[in-house]
Write a structure and sequence with these properties.
The structure is a homodimer. Chain A is of the alpha/beta class. In chain A, helix 6 packs parallel to helix 7. The longest helix of chain A has 16 residues. The two termini of chain A are about 50 Å apart. Chains A and B meet through strand 1, helix 4, helix 5, strand 3 and helix 6 of A and strand 1, helix 4, helix 5, strand 3 and helix 6 of B. Chain A binds a DNA duplex through helix 2 and helix 4.
Chain lengths: ~350, ~350
DNA sequence: CTGAAAGCGCTAACAG
DNA sequence: CTGTTAGCGCTTTCAG
């Protein structure tokens, strides 16, 4: 058995340095405090010598303008709040990474709110206290109304990855309806006849559209989805996917293809087949949705639909920044095209 | 071919509401502004009626104190900066999730800086501008000195998951040295004789310690690590793990066991074996490190070392909060115990 | 218990 | 071009 090892180390004198203020700089540079401010905000109407004097003082005193004071004056914080929820779904870290990169390039900081842990109250408070200049919601559903309204009250909001009817904000998503349809047509054309689906709550527009597109196209092809081959999970995880697929595979007449409304589910489904020794793709095809990084791993080699994440993110952010700058045009509802990525989990 | 679908929608009148201030509340409640402030900061010296008057006005006007102003006065922002870097390694999203939960419970917001995208300058600026009350670094190495010094100047810093010699801050990690040793002893005891390792840069203390522990224990067991069975990768990803393992498996005398210094690498290695039809565990054992969620998936079923992430996080945060509150004791260097988790990638 | 008053550090008119 | 001045909205003495 281990014991907790706790080693205290080094003596310490810990002193937070007093920070220089713009007044200190002014005194040091022999100019007025407002000139310091001008230099720092990039105001061009400053004599070159004065500017250099100020800059020198800034360097010597390692001065940095105080963010809180600046935020108070300008009522701009430079923070963008990003609401995520299912960090366990690798799609969201991927998105977060792209968001972080784009936001920083645009000169903002990213404040992350993970609403799955707390109720949305924390985010709402932060917004009300004007801790952010704008917000991006990645997992909005009609259920998030409270958050949305709070946001909308103070700062612009942009939805990414989700569409919520009736919300008065910009929304950027990909064409999940067509995505679902493409999968259905692909499976039908390949001669699959017992086609199953693992779906989820239609509260999320992504899921709803994928399912609707899939169902609709199957029906249109004269091969309506059999309800016995259709399982719904309440949360999206490897485990729920595994369990749902297990149920389908235990049927006396199991499906010959399964469409999973997202990749995490599909990975679980793939393993449910693996555990039962069901060969992919000879006995069963599996299709996912999102093209998360793991979909391309050999263990899964998953056919899936790729969302244009980078483009979605860049679009969302530029929309948001426009709004922050005061743009008041009509709400944009942007829908970007997806792409079917064929891999080994279906015949190539 | 798809076309970009762009649908503008709904007319719009977008008006950011003017927020009520504490003066508005004071007027509405018929008290002075300072009384409002007292009520909101929880000052007990307020008459009950006055308090209720204020609270009523707050509710009616949907008032929330302005964060920037409050931050300026108190020089506390309520933000904690979290420095991460490899979001593509699932360990970090897992950590982020735990951190977010714990921080919010402690009344803080989490500002995430992903240093892999940008140089650390952004984080440094944010710190200097006092945008955070403290910071947690998850991926510190001796190379991060610039960031560390910047942080250290204004706000307390706590290292989690990494140890950097000589840094004057609290550090919380798990016992990676013992972890490496435990793996070595486990493999040796199982009779493995051609033991390989996929390692990485010893700049990160985690990696350095795991490797040192592993190497040391093998040597102590009279079975020193053969250099031909040792591959180093420069970054940690599925792909680099896959490639590194491929090299080992292509040797004329391939290893009968491989220790991967983290799970992401191990997942890649597992797939390198899978692709070659090498059966696990009969022909090859694989051991990882971290016990990320995927390690338990059937496709991988990976024996690994589990770090006590939750405990590490909670410890780090409480240490940080103490420092924020002004605690000036000696720097703590806390090392928590790990646990070997045996799964199917080694004989059970 | 409560109001008046003094700023926190900064930006942005407004006069020079 | 530059200094003076007036706050941003809040917390916190300091007198009542």
């Amino acid at each position: 058995m281990y014991k907790l090892l706790l080693i205290s180390k080094l003596m310490t004198t810990y002193s937070r340095n007093e920070m220089a203020t713009s007044h200190d700089i002014a005194r040091r540079a022999g100019v007025s405090q407002s000139t310091v401010s001008r230099v720092l905000t990039g105001n061009p109407k400053v004599r070159k010598e004065a500017r250099e004097l100020v800059l020198a003082a800034v360097r010597e005193l390692k001065y940095r303008p105080n963010g809180a004071a600046r935020a108070m004056r300008t009522s701009q914080t430079g923070n963008i709040g990003v609401v995520v929820s299912r960090l366990a779904n690798p799609l969201y870290p991927e998105m977060l990474q792209i968001l972080g990169r784009c936001l920083i390039r645009a000169g903002f900081r990213m404040v992350v709110w993970n609403t799955e842990e707390v109720d949305e109250k924390v985010a709402i408070d932060a917004i009300h206290e004007s801790r952010v200049d704008g917000a991006i919601m990645t997992t909005a559903t009609a259920d998030s109304t409270e958050l949305y309204e709070a946001l909308q009250l103070n700062v612009p909001v942009v939805l990414i990855n989700r569409v919520v009817e009736g919300w008065r904000c910009d929304q950027v998503a990909s064409d999940n309806l067509t995505g679902g349809r493409v999968v259905a047509e692909y499976l039908a054309k390949a001669g699959k006849r017992r086609i199953g689906m693992i779906g989820g709550s239609p509260l999320a527009s992504t899921i709803r559209d994928r399912q609707a597109g899939f169902r609709g196209a199957l029906a249109a092809g004269g091969l309506p989805l059999e309800e016995t081959l259709c399982v719904h999970v309440d949360t999206f995880s490897y485990k729920t996917g595994f369990d749902a697929a297990s149920r389908l595979l235990e049927l006396s007449e199991p499906p010959d293809a399964i469409f999973c409304v997202n990749d995490v589910i599909a990975l679980g489904a793939r393993d449910a087949a693996r555990v039962r020794g069901i060969d992919i793709p000879s006995r069963l095809w599996i299709v996912g949705y999102d093209d998360i990084e793991m979909a391309s791993w050999h263990a899964f080699d998953l056919t899936t639909i790729r969302q244009p994440l980078v483009q979605m993110t860049e679009t969302a952010i530029s929309l948001l920044i426009e709004r922050i700058r005061g743009h008041e045009g009509e709400w944009q509802n942007i829908c970007l095209p997806n792409e079917l990525v064929i891999r080994g989990s279906t015949g190539r």
